[in-house]
Amino acid sequence: RELSSESNIHIYCLNILVFVTLQQRDPMLKRDGFEDILEERRNSSDLKYALRCYAPVLYKGVTPCKANMLKNIVLQSDQLRYVINQVSQESGEAPDIIQEEASVILEEMAHRLQISTVRFFAFALSKAFKTLFQHVCVNEEGIQRLQQAIQEHPVVLLPSHRSYMDFLLMSYILYTYDLALPVIAAGMDFMGMKFVGEMLRMSGAFFIRRSFGGDKLYWAVFSEYVKTMLRNGFAPIEFFLEGTRSRTCKSLTPKLGLLNIVIEPFFKGEVFDVNLVPISISYERILEESLYARELLGVPKPKESTSGLLKARRILSEDYGSIHVYFGQPVSVRSLAQGKVNRSTYNLFPRHIPRKPMEETQSFVNDTAYRIVRLQEDNMVLKPWVLMASLLLQNLEGMELSVLTEQTVWLRGLALSYAAFLDWPDHAPTAKVVSSSLALHRGLACVSGGRVSLVVGEPLGPVTPEEALFNRAVSVLSCASYRNQVLHVFLRPAMLAVAMLHLSDEVYNCFSFLWDMFSNDFILCPGDTVQDFEEACYLLVKTGAVQMPQQDIVMTDIGQPTLSFFNGLLEPFLQGYQVVCRYLCEEASEGLTEKQYIPAVRSFHSVLCVFTGNLRCYEVLSSDMQKNALAALLRMDAVRKVKVADQVTLIVNKMAVNSIDDILGKNRMISHINQTQISPSLSLVAVAEDLCRDGLTPSYIR
């Protein structure tokens, strides 16, 4: 009976297609178990561990290359010689002078791996890790896959990036399992650290500038250095696809520069294949949690220095819980490129002549980057605290401990049904799991009188309203960094939930709008709007939150708590983008520069919070949200950038921004009305006044 009409057959087939797709990529079906590598360290000598025989197997049995030999290969390469001659002709300087410049760049950049330094780090990190962490868990099956991959093809390691600890941890794990140590792309900032910078260089780091500008010679030296190591398989190459640490603990939009470089040798037929290995590093408690929150609120990042590192040793007295490191399945570039990239076009030009990537190549690299980051997300291990943080942020006034415990159990079931990789202690009572999580994160949440609330730093004396707002925002943003770790699990159904609560009946159009709007805040693969919508429908139907009779999407009787939670999950982002829109329409001056934008929006929102009592969404103060909102408005042609002299000015299309603001405002109205207990006697005027108190202007009330 259900398949009696063509439309029902279409819906049925879509559900089957989405189901099969999810089953194929459902990590719950193929995730490996973990081993705690610190267990052995606690029961044996760290000195013996550091001095043990270390003889890793390399790619096709190649002999490790000395640093000077590697530099000579790079400097004598045809590609670098071509660029040197090109720069010489453009600048009028002799090729020998340009050659010397290239040599200086390479000397500053190159790594100088020394086993003695590696052994020192192995000893020191063993001591530090045993003090800082309860467990460092690694999936051994992933290590075995990596060992095999290293012997077959050049390998590129692509870890997620949430902490400075990441690259040290990666080398420590590979040393533990007797695997070849990677050559790691590191920012030039670390080179300024006395002694430490050189020690990092001698443990495999090579240093690159944060940006190259139009420096053709620097780019040529850098790209040839990386490709030489890759072509010859001297060592696995490691870099962070996101480009920098994520201060919010959400995955960042991938940067394509280095990925283009490591894939190019395959396109040119210089290697048979390249294996990309996604690696997910999950911290139960992040070392830099409060530092990140302050940076997002405009406090300058401390400069990397040896003295700063020594001062940070006080963290050794803290407990940071567990780390889980998951080595994913190696991704073959050859398999991915099959039928997508025509490599024969690379035979039409000499290989040593640099060429701008073709459109299909650029599209392939972009798709690959998003695919890798999605794989990183899928294998992120989530602890109970991320669920608790998600609930506490929707109840900023606090929650009864019993209610928090009950809702955490409910949310655990929902997360598991959506294939979240959840590390929940086996056979432990729920109350104990919740209390131990609160104990570990006692700097963020506390229990008083049976009620759980976020901790706000105690001031030493009287504080201004602005300082009180800042302290509260630090607490909220620190907690949000944990909630953000679970967003990738709930994002798609959450956007559908918000779309369903929209005033319009056009659910897909609203979902598509939100998808486009939030594509800088979250990892949403370009061109996957329809697929993500179908996935969201499938997941909400699977958990009984909605039904799909005919072509409609209808909330079920038991679906209200789920949809309400999802709506609250995205509420800070909806409200944050609306504040940016309101600022640009109401307060932004004609000559607003890009540099002035973030402080101006933060000041505008602070006034709303401090002096009017409106808008208690502290996450709007985050520079990350403000940047992503601006990027969305630029992409949607609501704002344009115009370079005037040495400054970039923002030109606001107020009609377009108002239109976007109006759509977001309607979502906020629905959200607020759903969360308010409205009795039959409550007048529309009262609802309108309540909405205004919550930060919505009367123009949104029709």
TrEMBL record:
Pathways involved: Phospholipid metabolism
Family membership noted in the UniProt record: Belongs to the GPAT/DAPAT family.
Record-level Gene Ontology MF annotations: glycerol-3-phosphate O-acyltransferase activity; glycerone-phosphate O-acyltransferase activity
A Pfam family: Acyltransferase
GO cellular component, as recorded: mitochondrial membrane; peroxisomal membrane
Coiled-coil regions, chain positions: none
Keywords assigned: Acyltransferase, Membrane, Transferase
Domain Phospholipid/glycerol acyltransferase per the UniProt entry, residue ranges: 155-284
Protein's name in the database: Glyceronephosphate O-acyltransferase
Species for this entry: Oncorhynchus mykiss (Rainbow trout)
The keyword Plastid is annotated on this UniProt entry: no
Compartments where found: Membrane
InterPro entries assigned to the protein according to its UniProt record, in alphabetical order: GPAT/DHAPAT, GPAT/DHAPAT_C, GPAT/DHAPAT_LPLAT, Plipid/glycerol_acylTrfase
Principal localisation: membrane
Biological processes per GO annotation: ether lipid biosynthetic process; fatty acid metabolic process; phospholipid biosynthetic process; triglyceride biosynthetic process
